[in-house]
Specification:
heterodimer, A: 116 residues, mainly beta, four-stranded antiparallel sheet, 48% strand, globular, B: 115 residues, six-stranded mixed sheet, 12 strands
């Protein structure tokens, strides 16, 4: 049973370009969470999705950031017109459908985004 | 809003010795979960230990144990018989019972293990 898969592991973009980060949850998991980790800081919650639904996006910047989790395929975190301040490690986590908030999250290894 | 504070940016311990990492949090909730995660240089987030707030008994996982003081809102991690493989960044995290996977993390403590 493969774990949470994120790709790419490293992504380099120039200012103004778009970044697409992919996350495939563990098999059988239908809940996906995206977190961002700035240097020397802890993870900050961004968004919580279930299949085809955004449940909680309270941590998402209002502009340029969007996330989706389609019925088929991986979850995508999309950052348009990237700026240097977007440089960070982006983590995806998943949990099973019967998660009542007391199950542990399974994290991917993250995507390190570097904006030049 | 909930906050999690780790007041020790860096800690070091001699191999085979014991070290305690501190964590305090702020919440008005009574039902929640607390976690310690380990992040080695590979960047993978690994759950070390979990504590349910309604349980008075401190959680333990092999060499890892916590000191959970609910009234003081303190949740420290004790690592006994430290090993070189324990060297990593350690994050304390809080999650409300109704918040699914939405957790609040501290800024981390870097643990160095000296041989």
């Amino acid at each position: 049973n493969a774990g949470v898969m994120q790709n790419p592991r490293h992504l380099v973009r120039r200012r103004g370009q778009e970044a697409r980060l992919r996350c495939s949850p563990m098999k059988g998991h239908s809940h996906v969470y995206w977190y961002r980790q700035l240097p020397e800081e802890g993870l900050k919650f961004m968004v919580y999705l279930q299949k085809e639904n955004i449940i909680d996006e309270s941590g998402m910047p209002k502009e340029r950031f969007s996330a989706e989790f389609p019925k088929e395929g991986p979850s995508i975190l999309r950052i348009q017109q990237v700026v240097r301040g977007d440089s960070a490690a982006y983590f995806c986590a998943s949990s099973p459908p019967d998660d009542r908030g007391n199950e542990k999250l399974f994290f991917g290894s993250g995507t390190q985004l570097s904006v030049l | 809003a909930q906050t999690v504070t780790q007041s020790q940016p860096e800690m070091s311990v001699q191999e085979a010795e014991t070290v305690t990492l501190s964590c305090t949090y702020d919440t008005s909730e009574s039902d929640y979960y607390l976690f310690w995660y380990k992040q080695p240089p590979s960047r993978q987030m690994i759950l070390v230990i979990r504590q349910e707030a309604y349980k008075q008994q401190n959680a333990t996982e092999n060499r890892f144990s916590v000191n959970f003081q609910k009234a003081a809102k303190s949740f420290s991690l004790k690592i006994s018989d430290s090993q070189l493989g324990d060297a990593a960044m350690y994050f304390c995290a809080y999650r409300r019972n109704t918040n699914a996977g939405k957790s609040t993390f501290g800024d981390g403590t870097t643990l160095t293990v000296k041989p």
